[in-house]
Fold this sequence. Notes:
- The protein is α+β, with helices and mostly antiparallel strands and 229 residues long.
- It has 5 helices and 8 strands; from the N terminus they run αβββαβαββββαα.
- It has an 8-stranded mixed sheet with strand order 3-2-1-4-5-8-7-6, sandwiched between helices.
- DNA repair enzyme involved in the repair of deaminated bases. Selectively cleaves double-stranded DNA at the second phosphodiester bond 3' to a deoxyinosine leaving behind the intact lesion on the nicked DNA.
- It catalyses: Endonucleolytic cleavage at apurinic or apyrimidinic sites to products with a 5'-phosphate.
Amino acid sequence: MKEKYIKKFVEKQDELKKLVYLQNTFLVEEIKLVAGVDLAYWVKDKKEYGTCSIVVIDYNTKEIVEQVDYFDEITVPYISGFLAFRELPLILKTVKKLKTKPDIYMFDGNGYLHYRHMGIATHASFYLNKPTIGIAKSYLKIENVDFIMPENLKGAHTDIVINNDVYGRCLRTRENVKPIFVSCGNWIDLDTATELTLHFIEKDSRLPITTRYADLATHQSRKRVLGDK
């Protein structure tokens, strides 16, 4: 059954991949609002559901400006490498609930660091029309290439290079914590994506507060929907 999806999904990814632009289309000093995006899933009565949370944060004060959630049934099956096709419908419906207009979106997931450079951060950019960044907690191994562990210093990083192409960056956001994996989504360069990620790191987490707060919000949203205490 999944085979019927794969051909169509690959064609769409190949079409969009040609349009990816890994340079800044904005000035960092003009950034005002940055959104974190994450999703959570569950199964009930043999149906799969998902909830998307978007948390918008003021770039300068780092205060939460807005939070919205949306849940619905998931109809696209999970297929490795094509997660965006499952998540995008929920994300776009959640974005419609926003009253603010984020300048940049940061996703709990990958962007250019993907088999066909089409992780959720990159794929979603074409529908959001905004620069995007992928923030992954675990490493997506591509073509059997391992990442190189950076020094145990805040801001230390090593680039993930596959076939002479820089896919992303292994970044140590704090001392004595596991690194995270940053990749461009679209319309941003890797150094700026790294800079923005570090800007939102606080002392109690290795993750930027953008995607960290979004992750926490998805769990709260799921509990509300399921009626859990």
